[in-house]
Task: inverse folding
């Protein structure tokens, strides 16, 4: 018996790293990651590279600015680094969407086949719940670093004199996008406790994100106080962030942080007493 | 003799149906114990509560003097859960060694411990297979192997045979 070597943080790390391994070992994980790589390869080498080149070009730059104004993203024209400007908008929306797909099965399949029972005698439910969350967050973090690195490489190829401002921008972009992803992964942690199938969890997430605001605004017409619930819809701050620079967007990060803490506390509270 | 399991006023209800009603018993170390009863008597429910798979509606269950679910019992109880299946995407050795690491074994030790218990179950030759490649009986033996890892207080409820 090796209980003398049991270390809560070590077990927590083991759960997170196993989740990472299991996600990439499953057909679903490989499929979603494959789709992700395909979409990003296309985005990086066509829209992002070509849009950045267009914004650098004075002849068609004004056309780009008009287009950006049309979709409410005029502030992007002020970005010194065009590659990152386009990446910023795309990543802010794509990473959360991707997290809904890849983080949907944090518990469901394993709970359904009884596999969680092998774990609960060896570590606490808290370590399982939060370890899984961190594991899925690590997947997002790794993919975010890879796409940021490729975008930086594009910047160096197109505009190498901006290597230092680009380098300075990287940690800010990473922080903003990572924190924006947090509540989406936390929402999937919560839904993977509540729902009985991965499909239902994904569907419920789409309903919350797509119809949540609509339902809240409708009800707020009768009870104005309910409009405060909009703050609990993940991604509610994303449009504002997309229209800002990463340093200004930092001021919006309290919303995803608050949502993450809320979703995780509710999820853990239920999972602690749940039959497995 | 020291008390291994102690239940006091244990109740479990599923909606209106009472699966366990005011269960009181104590099991001392060294006693061979068998829990027998007809279908629906609540044997699975009792073992699920003792293993921490489900909470009791009321009452208290203790193992080795600690309430079920408490941190002190983590890694100290072995169980063979009924109908639980391993991850179909990872190999048997990967999964057993991961469970051994959660019990406190180092990376090297965990591989050796997983192989030791698989050998006990005469399954060493299939250690790199995935669970889907095994027969029903072999899957059960892999589940027994995980329960035997480490030297712990063990529930092995093979149709409710408890071995201490």
Result:
């Amino acid at each position: 018996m090796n209980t003398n070597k049991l270390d809560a943080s070590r077990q927590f790390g083991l759960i997170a790293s196993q989740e990472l391994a299991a996600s990439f070992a499953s057909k679903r994980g490989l499929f979603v990651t494959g789709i992700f790589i395909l979409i990003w390869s296309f985005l990086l080498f066509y829209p992002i590279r070509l849009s950045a080149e267009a914004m650098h070009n004075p002849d068609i730059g004004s056309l780009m600015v008009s287009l950006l104004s049309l979709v409410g993203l005029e502030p992007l024209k002020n970005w010194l680094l065009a590659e990152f400007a386009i990446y910023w908008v795309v990543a802010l929306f794509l990473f959360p969407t991707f997290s809904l797909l890849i983080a949907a099965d944090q518990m469901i399949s394993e709970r359904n086949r009884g596999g969680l029972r092998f774990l609960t005698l060896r570590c606490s439910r808290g370590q399982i719940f939060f370890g899984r969350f961190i594991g899925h967050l690590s997947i997002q973090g790794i993919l975010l670093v890879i796409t940021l690195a490729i975008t930086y490489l594009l910047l160096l190829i197109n505009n190498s004199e901006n290597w230092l401002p680009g380098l300075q921008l990287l940690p800010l972009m990473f922080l903003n996008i990572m924190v924006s992803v947090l509540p989406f992964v936390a929402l999937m942690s919560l839904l993977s406790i509540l729902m009985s199938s991965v499909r239902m969890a994904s569907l419920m997430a789409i309903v919350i994100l797509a119809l949540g605001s609509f339902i809240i605004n409708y009800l707020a017409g009768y009870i104005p106080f309910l409009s405060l619930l909009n703050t609990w819809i993940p991604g509610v701050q994303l449009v504002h962030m997309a229209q800002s620079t990463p340093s200004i967007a930092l001021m919006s990060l309290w919303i995803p942080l608050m949502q993450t803490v809320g979703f995780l506390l509710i999820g853990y509270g239920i999972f602690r007493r749940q039959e497995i | 003799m020291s008390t291994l399991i102690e239940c006091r006023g244990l109740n479990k209800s599923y909606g209106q149906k009472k699966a366990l009603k005011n269960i009181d018993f104590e099991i001392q170390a060294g006693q061979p114990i068998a829990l027998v009863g007809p279908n629906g008597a609540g044997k699975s429910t009792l073992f699920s509560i003792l293993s921490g798979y489900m909470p009791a509606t009321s009452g208290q269950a203790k193992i080795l003097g600690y309430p079920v679910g408490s941190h002190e019992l983590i890694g100290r109880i072995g169980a063979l859960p009924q109908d639980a299946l391993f991850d179909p995407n990872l190999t048997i050795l990967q999964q057993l060694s991961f469970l051994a690491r959660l019990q406190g074994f180092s990376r090297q030790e965990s591989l050796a411990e997983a192989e030791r218990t698989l050998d006990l179950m005469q399954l060493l030759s299939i250690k790199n297979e995935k669970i889907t490649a095994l027969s029903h009986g072999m899957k059960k033996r892999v589940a027994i192997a995980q329960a035997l890892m480490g030297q712990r207080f063990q529930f092995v409820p093979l149709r409710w045979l408890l071995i201490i």
